Amino acid sequence: MRIDLHTHSTASDGTDTPAELVAHAAAAGLDVVALTDHDTVGGHAEAAAALPEGLTLVTGAELSCRIDGIGLHMLAYLFDPSEPELARERELVRDDRVPRAQTMVAKLRELGVPVTWDQVARIAGDGSVGRPHIATALVDLGVVETVSDAFTPAWLANGGRAYAEKHELDPFDAIRLVKAAGGVTVFAHPLAVKRGAVVPEAAIARLAAAGLDGIEVDHMDHDEPTRARLRGLAGDLGLLPTGSSDYHGTRKTVQIGEYTTDPEIYGEITRRATGAFPVPGAGGAHRA
Questions:
Q1: CA neighbor of 121 nearest in space, from 99, 143, 141
Q2: Is the CA virtual torsion 159, 115, 93, 77 positive or negative?
Q3: Under a CB-based contact definition with an 8 Å cutoff, are residues 72 and 190 in contact?
Q4: pLDDT at 193
């Protein structure tokens, strides 16, 4: 089985619609794909309706969190999307995205970048607006060469010159809320140092003690020594090590299915989840 547990669609900051994303996942030879848009479940219905035969959809979201002043992303899988407290927190984060993005646009203009809010809003479309949309505007304006180049201290990285904070969950609350909704939590790209400050290992240990299920190990922003370090940390803390592309369509160079999760790890995630079940495509894809 080939399993990719971290992708984004136009429901947040990817360039594929949910239907296009599952089609691309099937074409890439995946058996399982998770749709984990930022702080929203808005793409799940379309993705499920478009699932081709042989592909299973794992519903999820990537939750925006902050601990000790450091931003982090928490992947939440197979939770009940109607659980009211978690739904309310996701809505608070989404509602804060527009004013936050507008603040970043204003900061960029103060730095001499001729970006406009209308330009960013047009790029975001109906999606949940975020930094990748602003980064795309910077690429279009010729300020940076790639979206990744915008995520530096000079521009949009955490603490960067044009960075602005938004409402974010305490990760301990996120773990509690996701578990209450029957879901499973995995700390996304925990040592992606290119994005800015990262959470220290002592804090990851605290999150593990609070019920964190796993950490994303195989990711484009982790080099081989970092992956080895994280795999050892996962073993020490009893965490599930996952692998994922963090696919955003054409907004990033990584391809869907470029990094994958071991089938046994996926099976354990599905066994722990009680809030929702993986959705098989027409014809009945398998579940680990």
A1: 99
A2: negative
A3: yes
A4: 87
State how beta strands 240-243 and 214-218 pair: parallel
* Cα–Cα distance, 135 to 205 (Å, whole number): 33
Nearest one of 158, 154, 150, 162 to 192, comparing CA atoms: 158
The conformational region for residue 150 under phi > 0 = left, psi -120 to 50 = alpha, else beta, is alpha
Rg of the chain, C-alpha, whole Å? 18
- Dihedral sign, CA of 153, 156, 161, 165? negative
Q: How many CA atoms lie within 13 A of 216 on its CB side?
A: 31
Query: For residues 220 and 167, what is the distance between their CA atoms, to the nearest angstrom?
Result: 27
Q: Which structure tokens are listed for 164?
A: 């602005």
Identity (one letter) of the amino acid at 198? V
- The backbone region for 214, taken as left when phi is positive above 0, alpha when psi lies in -120 to 50, beta otherwise, is beta
50-89: buried (b, 16+ CB within 10 Å) or exposed (e) per residue? bbeebbbbbbbbbbbbbbeebbbbbbbbbbbbebeebbeb
- Which pLDDT score, from 0 to 100, does residue 116 have? 97
Q: Which residues partner with 241 through β-bridges?
A: 215
The reported pTM is: 0.89
Sign of the four-CA dihedral 221, 226, 228, 230: negative
Phi-psi region of 196 (alpha: psi -120 to 50; beta: other; left: phi over 0): left
Return all residues near 246 (Cβ < 8 A) that are at least 6 apart: 6, 7, 8, 188, 189, 219, 220, 221, 252, 254
Residue with tokens 């949910």: 18
Split the chain (288 residues) into runs of 10 and give each run's mean pLDDT. 97 96 97 97 97 97 94 96 96 91 98 97 91 96 94 91 93 98 98 88 97 98 97 98 97 95 98 97 49
Distance from the first to the final alpha carbon of the chain: 9
Can you tell me the distance from the alpha carbon of 281 to that of 23, in angstroms, rounded to the nearest whole number? Answer: 11
